[in-house]
Amino acid sequence: MGASSRAWVSRHLNAGERIVESETLSGGITAEMRKLTVRTTDGFSRNLVLRTYTDSARVLHVEDWLRRESAALTLLSGSGMPVPQLVAVDPTAAHCEYPSLLMTQLPGSTVLTDEGVNERVPLLARQLVEIHAVNSDTRPREYQAMTTADTVVVPARADTKVWAAAQDLLRGPVPTYDGRVLHRDFQPGNVLFDVSQNSAARITGVVDWAGASWGPTDLDVAHCSTNLALLHGPQWGPRFAFAYEEAGGVLSQNGRTRQYWRVRDALACSEEVQLWAAPWREAGRTDLTPRVVEDRLDAYISMLMDARGQ
Predict the structure, then answer these.
(1) Inter-residue contact 222 to 262 (CB < 8 Å)
(2) Under 8 Å between Cβ of 308 and 263
(3) Using one digit for the tens of pLDDT, what is the confidence trace for 223-253?
(4) Residue 29 pLDDT level (bands cut at 50, 70, 90)
(5) Pairing of the two strands 18-25 and 213-215
(6) For residues 9 and 19, is the Cβ–Cβ distance under 8 A?
(7) What is the pLDDT of residues 180-199, one digit of tens each?
(8) Would you put residue 227 in left (φ > 0), alpha (ψ -120 to 50) or beta?
(9) Over the range 140-149, which residues count as b (16 or more CB within 10 Å of their CB) and which as e?
(10) Spatial separation of the C-alpha atoms in residues 106 and 198, rounded to whole Å
(11) What is the SS3 assignment for 89?
(12) In terms of CB atoms within 10 Å, which of 4, 108, 113, 307 comes out highest?
């Protein structure tokens, strides 16, 4: 952390507090994450998290991401949702070396193991239903779907006929929908769990709200389904969608529309599947080799294309 960033953070601490430790956190793809240990005036300590965007290639998007995340955290403050509390934001690097956001640290940790996935998926589903139930007079910006049929990257060993049919779906009209508040990157890597041995697993936090948007619930469900399909096997994609409805979530009643959103998200993943998987391997999922995640994505696309009526 540079001198300017340290001075900026210090200005947003309580009187008499000071930073005593800075530790880089693993798992971030688009930003550098640091845990800051702050010594309080009563001799105890508390932790903050500093999100810093250092990649100059992303500078055109960073200001928007930071403004959207700070707006989302403000919107959800006091809602009972387990989200960080916004402390300060510097979206244009007016005070820090790089665009930054400062927030409180939540307890818990990400859990990516196959063990216990049966118990965690219903918890994830219920949490997403709660997010979609947020009622606000101020809507986030409309969702963005950057992928087109022509930007899809077909894996080398994929069934090209199936993928071509999937790409054709993207060339059709976008289905109409009733919008809700979306997280837009809701998946196991952005959910914190308490998995202590003496109690059942529970969610303690939902982080990374930089993509908060307004759009169809199907899209958030599709995104988590894609991640679960890659992490734990293709069958976990439809299982999550089922768990979401079991928890009271509402998806499109039209099978073709459901298929559209799920295929769209899975195809979008094709462009960055190895970027997605790299933090998983760093977190211990060394079994998720480039070949494994590509093959799982191919199998999941095939499953979705066979599910027109579901």
Answers:
(1) yes
(2) no
(3) 999 999 999 999 999 999 999 999 999 999 9
(4) low
(5) unpaired
(6) yes
(7) 999 999 999 999 999 777 77
(8) alpha
(9) beebeeebee
(10) 20
(11) strand
(12) 108
For the chain, the C-alpha Rg in angstroms (whole number) is: 20
Dist CA 142 CA 289 (whole Å): 34
Average pLDDT, rounded, for the chain: 93
User: Taking a C-beta distance cutoff of 8 angstroms, is the pair 74, 172 a contact?
Assistant: no
Cα gap 208→225, rounded to integer Å? 18
Strands (DSSP E) contained in 60-201 are 86-90, 100-104, 180-182, 191-194
* Rounded CA separation 291/273 (Å): 10
Helix (H) or strand (E) holding 180: strand 180-182
Residue 199 sits at the vertex; the CA angle it makes with 196 and 200, to the nearest 5 degrees, is 100
CB-based burial label for 167 (10 Å; 0-12, 13-18, 19+): buried
* pLDDT tens readout for residues 38-87: 999 999 999 999 999 988 766 678 999 999 999 999 999 988 899 999 99
The encoded tokens of residue 108 equal 């818990």
- At 142 the three-state DSSP class reads strand
Rounded distance, CA 301 to CA 177, Å? 23
| CB distance 37 to 45 below 8 Å | yes
CB 278, CB 286: distance < 8 Å: no
For 91, how many CA atoms within 13 A lie in the half-sphere containing its CB? 13
Task: Kindly report the pTM of this predicted structure.
Answer: 0.93
